[in-house]
Amino acid sequence: MSVQSTDRLVDHAAIRVNQAFIIGLLLLAFVLNWPALAAFVAAVMLLGTLAPDLALFQRIYRDLLKPRGLIRPHVIADNPEPHRFAQGFGGVVVALGALALFGGWTVPGWALIWLVIALAGLNLGVGFCAGCFVYYQLNRLGVPGFRARPIRQE
Amino acid sequence: MIERALIAAGLLLLGACLFLAFRAGHLRRATRRATAAGKPAILYFRSDLCLPCQTQGRFLQELQAALGDQIHIERIDAHAEREKAAQYGIFTVPTTLVMDAHGAVRHANYGLADVHKLVGQLQTVGVGAHPSHLRM
């Protein structure tokens, strides 16, 4: 499939692999009642937001899964910023959930983590990125820092 | 651990059911608003404020070129035509609604829908698609 010539390209296969890891590991953390695993996922998400090249789950896709042909790339014209925002926001929520769990607040802690599971599942299963939606609403409202605008279509 | 696994499975099932109920409601609402085109149609809600809509637009161009008069594709700017988008219950773009020839909305795609997915959905509303003619 041809790809439009633009420097605003995002590999959505990498995003989906990232979400699959997040969902899978957070579910595992819940089943095993293992807050430390949730904290690890939060750390990976936040580090990947601050330094995308260090995003562990996307590195697994890029360095292991894609070269072996296990997952095909799906590169489309898109802004990377909203996806980074979504990951960062999700990372903050998971971090708060993990902190709540370490503090003994079990129900709020797991509720926050399940919120991220649900939203990541919505993105993975249906293609709706809640974080991206929030990003573009903030962009429309002129909130400083949310500068990435979609390129005007011809 | 077994109990927590069952709780997790139950929550996932509940989430899936809620989503399916939401989508079923959305399809009913959209059908009430839609008018039959006399042939299968795709209502494509887009916006200039949406970069993946470029890709969706390209996919739909390929589909139209391959299927010709078998389908009708209507492009609606959700930003410029907010009221129409609201009547169809649109909350994100790109969104594609696949209608049969009688105006019933049978599928809703929230976000980018690739050609393969749209072809499969069009086949359920009676379009004799030929995927081999489409670049994937």
What report would you give on this structure?
- The complex is a heterodimer of chains A (154) and B (136).
- Chain A has one domain (9-140).
- In chain A, 66% of the residues lie in helices and 4% in strands.
- Chain A has helices at 12-31, 35-50, 56-65, 80-102, 106-126, 130-140; strands at residues 9-11, 75-77.
- Chain A has a two-stranded antiparallel ribbon with strand order 1-2.
- In chain A, helix 1 runs antiparallel to helix 2 (35-50), helix 1 (12-31) packs antiparallel against helix 5 (106-126) and helix 2 (35-50) packs antiparallel against helix 4 (80-102).
- Residues 1-5 of chain A have low confidence and may be disordered.
- Chain B starts with a helix and ends in a 12-residue tail after the last helix.
- Chain B has a four-stranded mixed beta sheet with strand order 2-1-3-4.
- Chain B has helices at residues 2-33, 52-67, 82-87, 115-124, and strands at 41-46, 72-77, 95-99, 105-110.
- Chain B has four helices and four strands, in the order αβαβαββα.
- Chain B has a single domain, classed as 3-Layer(aba) Sandwich (Glutaredoxin).
- Helices cover 47% and strands 17% of the residues of chain B.
- At the A-B interface, helix 1, helix 5 and helix 6 of A face helix 1 and helix 2 of B.
List the helices and strands and how they pair.
The complex is a heterodimer of chains A (154) and B (136).
Chain A: E1 9-11, H1 12-31, H2 35-50, H3 56-65, E2 75-77, H4 80-102, H5 106-126, H6 130-140
Antiparallel strand pairs in A: 1-2
Chain B: H1 2-33, E1 41-46, H2 52-67, E2 72-77, H3 82-87, E3 95-99, E4 105-110, H4 115-124
Parallel strand pairs in B: 1-2
Antiparallel strand pairs in B: 1-3, 3-4
Question: Architecture of chain B, according to CATH?
Answer: 3-Layer(aba) Sandwich
Give the C-alpha Rg of chain A.
16 Å
* Main sheet overview of chain B: 4 strands, mixed
**What fraction, in percent, of the residue positions of chain A are helical?**
55-70%
Number of helices of chain A: 6
Shape of chain A: globular
Structural class of chain B: alpha+beta
Overall number of structural domains of chain A: 1
End-to-end distance of chain B:
44 Å
For this structure, what is the CATH class of chain B? Answer: Alpha Beta
